[in-house]
Design brief:
Layout lengths: L3 E4 L2 H9 L12 H4 L4 E8 L5 E11 L6 E5 L12 H15 L2 E6 L4 E6 H9 L13 E2 L3 H10 L3 E2 L15 E6 L5 H7 L2 H13 L2 E5 L4 H15 L6 H14 L4 E8 L2 E11 L2 E9 L8 H15 L4 E6 L11 H8 L4 E5 L3 E4 L2 H13 L1
Parallel strand pairs: 4-5, 13-14
Antiparallel strand pairs: 1-2, 2-3, 3-4, 5-16, 6-7, 6-15, 8-16, 9-14, 9-15, 10-11, 11-12, 12-13
Helix pairs in contact: 7-10
Organism: Streptomyces phaeofaciens
InterPro entries: Acyl_CoA_acyltransferase (IPR016181), FEMABX (IPR003447), PG_Glycine_Bridge_Synth (IPR050644)
Family: Belongs to the FemABX family.
């Protein structure tokens, strides 16, 4: 029997998320307030007894001049992805509900891990002149069942988005991320897992007098100044300051410690800053920013280590450094960021990526062409 999908109240959705050990911050009710250009709806899957069995945040983006929407569930929904009747019981009622809402296409990002590469495996791939992409390197482990989920989706008419671009980042959320497992590990063990350069840099920052402090909303402009400098240096389009102000207000109104801001000071100057997000036992290093000034005092390593210490104190099972490039070419400007993250001793993780289901094929195709021209 298929599940019944209907709108959830904010409190119902939040209670469902709070009862889980891990959920993406993009699947919390507050995330809809961060995205004012989208209309947000919390949806729930109810079984025959009326028990809430799954939940998701749907972002609805209107087509220009039409009351038709792209429905997007970033890094979600929170359902039983291992269910053998995934398509019939879980996804078909979701599609029917979203079609009734005026959706012409549905995009989702199943939180399903496919493969993992240890730090040593990533380093070996980077050093191998014949390895051009991480996806081509031998993984350390495969997640059971992921290939079966992908096969079920394909047979049901879902289409997988390509990783996209020369750097391997998807157009939506990153398919490849870097995570440091914390579960069952002491802080000393996590510190011991850092590579020698990281440990040396943390000590160097301490000797140089770098101080890492937690900031408040009044410090967001200081973060933003560094963020725009980082955007120019790393060649990406920065979000406006108002985006981070909305994040702070919405996420911390939902949970008082959902979003934190850290700043690395040296001689009265802010050299690096970063945001940290927490949902259950999952902690993310979300946005980072730094200046090219005084890099020799290693503010970034000092800041990351403080964030990792605080995440461990919060009871994190995983510290997530978010997206990494899939491209291992020396010419790629994001390879330095990958090397920085590999120094934490964690692991590269590939997720199932994002998947599309066109409910109205002509409108879906027209939207794809519109987005390609932007």
């Amino acid at each position: 029997m298929s599940l019944r999908v209907q709108s959830l109240t904010r409190d119902e959705h939040l209670a469902f998320v709070a009862a889980r050990p891990s959920a993406s911050h993009m699947q919390t009710p507050a995330w809809g307030e961060v995205k004012p250009d989208w209309r947000a709806e919390s949806v729930g899957w109810f079984d025959e007894r009326g028990v809430l069995a799954g939940a998701g945040l749907v972002l609805l983006r209107p087509l220009p001049k039409l009351r038709r929407y792209l429905a997007y569930l970033p890094e979600g929904p929170l359902v039983d992805w291992s269910a053998p009747d995934l398509v019939e019981r879980w996804l078909k009622p979701m599609l029917a509900h979203l079609r009734a809402r005026g959706a012409f296409s549905v995009k989702m990002g199943p939180p399903v891990v496919v493969r993992r590469w240890s730090a040593d495996a990533v380093k070996a791939a980077v050093a191998d002149p014949d390895a051009h992409r991480l996806r081509d390197a031998e993984p350390t482990s495969y997640a059971p069942g992921a290939a079966e989920v992908a096969d079920r989706l394909r047979r049901a008419g879902w289409r997988q988005s390509e990783p996209g671009g020369e750097d391997g980042f998807a157009a939506g959320q990153p398919r490849y991320v870097f995570q440091v497992p914390f579960a069952g590990r002491s802080l000393e063990e996590i510190h011991g897992g850092l590579n020698q350069q990281w440990r040396r840099n943390i000590k160097k920052a301490e000797k140089a007098g770098v101080k890492v402090v937690r900031g408040g909303p009044e410090d967001l402009p200081a973060f933003y100044t560094l963020y725009t400098e980082t955007a120019a240096r790393d060649r990406f389009i920065p979000r406006p300051l108002s985006y981070f102000e909305r994040m702070w207000t919405a996420l911390n109104a939902e949970h008082p410690d959902r979003m934190r801001l850290y700043l690395a000071h040296h001689d009265g100057d802010v050299l690096a800053a970063a945001t940290m997000l927490t949902v259950g036992e999952h902690v993310w290093y979300s946005y980072g920013a730094s200046t090219a000034r005084r890099r020799e005092v290693q503010p970034n390593n000092a800041m990351q280590w403080r964030m990792m210490c605080d995440a461990h104190e919060l009871g994190a099972a995983v510290y997530d450094l978010r997206g990494i490039t899939d491209t291992l070419e020396d010419a790629n400007h994001l390879l330095g960021l990958l090397r920085f993250k590999v120094g934490t001793g964690g692991e590269a993780v590939e997720y199932l990526g994002e998947w599309d289901f066109p409910l109205n094929r002509p409108l879906h195709k027209a939207f794809e062409l519109y987005m390609a021209r932007r």
